Amino acid sequence: MEKQEWLLGIDLGGTTVKLAFVNKEGTIVEKWEIPTNLVDNGIHIVSEIASSVKEKMGKWPKAALVAAGMGAPGPVDFETGSIYVAVNIGWRNYPLKSRLERELGIPVVVDNDANMASYGEFWKGTGEGTNDLVCITLGTGVGGGIIANQELVHGVSGAGGELGHITVIPEGGASCNCGKTGCIETIASATGIVRLTLEEINKKPESLIANRYRDQGLITSKDLFECVEEHDEASAAVLDKVAKYLGLTAAHVGNCLNPDKIVFGGGVSRAGEVLLSPVRAYFQQYAFPRVAESTSLECASLGNDAGVIGAAGLAYKQYGN
Amino acid sequence: MEKQEWLLGIDLGGTTVKLAFVNKEGTIVEKWEIPTNLVDNGIHIVSEIASSVKEKMGKWPKAALVAAGMGAPGPVDFETGSIYVAVNIGWRNYPLKSRLERELGIPVVVDNDANMASYGEFWKGTGEGTNDLVCITLGTGVGGGIIANQELVHGVSGAGGELGHITVIPEGGASCNCGKTGCIETIASATGIVRLTLEEINKKPESLIANRYRDQGLITSKDLFECVEEHDEASAAVLDKVAKYLGLTAAHVGNCLNPDKIVFGGGVSRAGEVLLSPVRAYFQQYAFPRVAESTSLECASLGNDAGVIGAAGLAYKQYGN
User: What's the CA angle centered on A301, arms A296 and A306, to 5 degrees?
Assistant: First the structure.
């Protein structure tokens, strides 16, 4: 009997490494996590991944791994598969592809984690069946990935799809981790939303969201969306600002690429239509009419699995004949 | 003796049709123009092109046309080669590819004129040798074209690369022909520059540019750049505004795609470094640092030939052996 052929998807984060065996139809067969070993600037990560994979594969004598894909948090030289820099891991010019290929004995494709998640949505998520897709990930920061003509766009130095650093407030915007000011990340990330919410709480100390802040001692973007649904005006004002600049960002990307879909993922996007509906309204206002009519804004569908599914999918595309 | 194999490049404009025989190295062998016949909603254009081409080919018994490319002013369904709408010509859902193939007897590829010009710069102009290229054409309007992973990006309804309608003034911007307000086209097109210059002349009636306006009875973007070089403060203020928003636009596109180059073409770009130098400064301010370091801003090099060369180049890519 022939062996079943699977792909290995790996999604490297600052605290855990997500792993999954994925079949050629894009279904996860098994998934698990191991802690990210940051000791010695991450030098043990690759061998620990390989040991864990070999152990898990021992349970599946009728299956074989064809290839692996791995997403890493930082810009990647896609041609060579080396990581330019991954600050949270400790890697700099790290030859991830060759190290992992040696340890696993199968071909490996390496890409930026946001690109891998975008490729996941393209292969098996909200973007399935599209030709051109843009993903905007609203998490602690704002990331992104672009697929044009069914190919990921990496750019000349691996910064293609860095949508979080689109400047939406050209003058007097808040400082961003990237060194600039006024990036959409300072507004539409979980961190940015909390910052804007705290500013509004100062201005409206009698609002529902201000009361909630005093009760809980802290506030999250989830609180904001909940208070919007309870018709709190202060919260609505924050959401309006977030939606406006996110709609503007989507319009910029839309006017560049006119993709089939712009898909929002990450923790903040779990708010769903409460967020998406006003974002769409601003998108309609700022997008070229032909783009406004044809590019749709939707929520991602793969959640935290997008990274491993995308990594497996890209491995399949590159090596899975 | 074997026949020389050439490509035919066609660039359709509202007043003239530019035509060229181009060899496989991308060199123009012969170029000429015919008037655009707008009678009966442009129904005669294709047959007049074919007659003209056949007549010219009569002079070259040792050459044969392999394929043709044609750029048209409007969004194109790239798959079918039909023109969704070309307002200035009178076409709507016009099957240009099939009509031209029937008349010429060779395979034809059809695309938007701005895309063809961008492809020209990619094949044989400033963008030669790049993997990812963005062209921004500053003419009567502002157009654009995007090449990612060496392929033109058309988008789901042919509006990919419509960079002129990126919204740079989200509130209170000038009205644009597209129906929106605040598009970069309202600022950095020849028309937009004249509008801003006239506003500044009203505010600074003693300036050099105001005097020139009174002397000549009209003013062009060329006048503006000349007065900047003569250190006229009013003109410098206009240029600063144009450069700021053009730099912001370039940064938006750069943050999306991190292309090797962003190339400026069209009549306004003939100003050269007077324009490009301040645009670069604003680009540095608004682009993600990694993009600011790696994406360069340059002037186009093919001038008015970009359209026919790009059309020939795309025909070669699609059908040239």
Answer: 115
Q: Which amino acid is at B185?
A: E
Which residues in chain A are closer than 8 Å to B318, comparing Cβ atoms? none
ipTM for this prediction? 0.95
Residues of chain B with CATH 3.30.420.40: 4-122+305-319, 128-301
* Residue B248 touches partner A, C-beta closer than 8 Å: yes
CB of B87 within 8 Å of any CB in chain A?
A: no
The pLDDT of residue A199 is 97
- The class that CATH gives domain A126-300 is alpha beta
The reply to whether residue A158 touches residue B290, judged by beta carbons under 8 angstroms, is yes
Answer whether 0.90 is exceeded by the pTM: yes
A103-114 tens-digit pLDDT: 999 999 999 999
pLDDT exceeds 90 at position B162: yes
Strand partners, B262: B134, B297
- For an interface test with B, give the residue of A78, A185, A252, A253 to mutate (most B CBs within 10 A): A252
CA distance A317 to A105: 18
Among B residues 141-170, those touching chain A with beta carbons less than 8 Å apart: 146, 148-149, 151, 153-163, 165-167, 170
Residue carrying structure tokens 């990237």: A178
Cα separation, B107 vs B66, in Å, equals 8
**Distance in angstroms (rounded) separating the CA atoms of residues A200 and B214:** 52
* Beta strands A28-35 and A63-72, pairing class: unpaired
Q: What CATH number was assigned to the domain covering residues A4-112+305-319? A: 3.30.420.40
In sequence order, what DSSP letters do the residues of B70-87 get, joined into one string?
EEESS-EETTTTEEEEET
Q: Would you tell me which CATH number, out of the four given (3.40.50.2300, 3.90.550.10, 3.30.420.40, 3.40.1280.10), belongs to the domain B4-122+305-319? A: 3.30.420.40
Q: Cα(A165)–Cα(B217) distance, rounded to whole angstroms?
A: 45
Which token pair is A88?
């949270």
Q: Where in chain A is the domain with CATH 3.30.420.40?
A: 4-112+305-319, 126-300
For B154, residues 6+ apart whose C-beta sits below 8 A from its C-beta are A258, B76, B78, B111, B115, B160
